[in-house]
Amino acid sequence: MKTGARMIFCLTILAACGFVSAAHADASTNKPPFRYVWGKAFHILPGTHNHESGYKSLCVGLNQKAYIGTAKYGENSYLVEFDPETEKQRVVIDVHKVVGQTTTGYTAQAKIHTRNFVGPSGKIYVGSKQGYPSKAEREAVDIPPYPGGYVLAYDPKTDKAQNLGMPYPGFGVIDTVADEARGLIYLTTCEDPYHWMAYDMKANRYRWLGPELVVNCQTLVDARGRANALTWDFKLVRYDPATNKLTTQPILLDGEKFTRTKADAHTIPLWQIAADGKTAYMTIMNQAKLYRIDLGGEDTGPVKMTTIGTLVEGPKPDSRCTLTIAADGRVFAIVTVDNDTGFGARRLAHLAAYDPASDQCKDLGVLAVKNPDFYAFEVGPDEKLPSHMRGFHKLPDGALVPSNSFGLAAAADGTLYVTVLYPFTLLRIDPTELQ
Q1: Per residue in 170-198, is it b (16+ CB within 10 Å) or e — as a string?
Q2: How many Å apart are CA 384 and CA 11, to the nearest integer?
Q3: Could you state, in order of their start, the residue ranges of all structural domains in the chain?
Q4: What are 276-299's pLDDT values in tens digits?
Q5: Where are the alpha helices (DSSP H) in 37-89?
């Protein structure tokens, strides 16, 4: 009996005896044991990245166009606009051009790594940061230091980009959030330590706010205008511009003290604030759980955090950078897990949703590409894809699926956008797929 036939026979017998799930038995008939969530894929504008790589830099503007930040290591970075009507892309921020930088290598503004923020005015706020030293630079005795990242804004109404300056020399920018009503921009620098800062738009001045934040922390501005962030050990830190006061409060998760040590490298949080300005939803990178945090309380005493539930079942969950709240209030997240179903291999990116109205979490299915010819995947002589193409793979039924995801954003009409690495891809998911 051939190896493939023997495997199918064994799986069938084991399933019949109850030793493996029906999901594994379905693999023998090329029927996936999960639902697909189909999206149309677009290769992000060639020339704006050089390793088919990008990060969490994704948003949908008030004009319903998607904006993606890119990484072009050693050279530059760009903000790319995607028009869903024409399906065309163009550069709207050339970082080096806007900030007047000509040097490259490690000194380059090689990444836009911020989760792009859309202000009520429609302006889009981003930040730039460094990449990595090349092999030659690592081996060199001395290389020029990275000068520092910039905060930038793009206004779709005027089609103009603006340089808002360098907050902290030597450090890149990992987060930008604008409180336009109060004339403030909150930002976090990246690389250890993570500085929390504020920019006064009128005074054109940056100031350091206070405690060291957790890795990749985002600022959330609540209904009372307070800026909320998380310290490195998972306390809630708040800055109230009305009183110019900073407070720090413990967080109780399901009634128990919530904390983190410096060794907990993968407990990287991602949170978003709901339309009420009081409720925040959070995931943690190495978990598949969804949490709710009450940001509507006072500046003293513990802050309440509760576990809502598990979004996706599966081994080795990874939910980095993929959390968004849709206009209808549903919370969407992508959790990538090892494929232990017996139907194919590698990793599967599941889209999950939480509906506050029903208080239910639902795994909507595995992301899949409905136009697999969007990119020329070329198998090498070893019958393997080169590294810059390995972010996708095919399942036994021929479906092309991503094995990672690095950004998620919801449009006002219910459309979801996802970014995937290798090749650097924008996946557009229609609202009809989200039921």
Answers
A1: ebbbbbbbbbeeeebbbbbbbeeebbbbb
A2: 27
A3: 34-51+320-435, 57-215, 217-314
A4: 999 999 999 999 999 999 999 999
A5: none
Helix, strand, coil in percent for the chain, rounding step 5: 10, 40, 50
Q: What span, in angstroms and rounded, lies between the C-alpha atoms of 67 and 79?
A: 7
Chain-centroid distance, C-alpha 366: 17
**DSSP-assigned letter for residue 414:** S
Strands 160-163 and 173-179: unpaired
417 closest CA partner among 407, 401, 428 = 428
CATH class of the 57-215 domain in this structure: mainly beta
Task: Name the token pair of 362.
Answer: 């639902």
Residue type, 40: K
| Complete DSSP assignment for 109-143 | --EE-S--EE-TTS-EEEEEE-----HHHHHSS--
**400 phi and psi, to 5 degrees?**
-90, 120
Distance of CA 284 to the CA centre of its chain: 12
Give the tens place of pLDDT for each residue, 369-379. 999 999 999 88
Count Cβ atoms within 10 A of the Cβ of residue 89 and give its class: 0-12 exposed, 13-18 middle, 19 or more buried.
buried
The single residue listed with the structure tokens 């009634």 is 255
Question: 322 - beta bridge partners?
Answer: none
DSSP state letters, 354-413: EETTTTEEEEEEEEEES-GGGS-----TTS---GGGTTEEE-TT--EEES---EEEE-TT
Total residue length of the chain? 435
Structure tokens at 353: 């949703």
C-alpha dist (Å) from residue 286 to 83, 158, 297, 343 = 33, 41, 28, 23
Side-chain half-sphere exposure of 371, counting CA atoms within 13 A: 12
The string of DSSP letters for 270-312 reads EEEE-TTSSEEEEEETT--EEEEEE-SS-SSSPEEEEEEEES-
Beta carbons within 10 angstroms of residue 26's beta carbon: 19
In this prediction the pTM is: 0.92
What does DSSP assign to residue 246? E
Position 24 pLDDT exceeds 80:
no
* Structural element, H or E, at residue 5: helix 3-16
| CA distances, 400 to each of 38, 338, 352 (Å) | 10, 16, 19
Model confidence pLDDT, tens digit, residues 75-84: 999 999 999 9
> Strand pairing of 251-253 and 256-257?
antiparallel
Q: Number of helices and strands (H, E) in the chain?
A: 4, 33
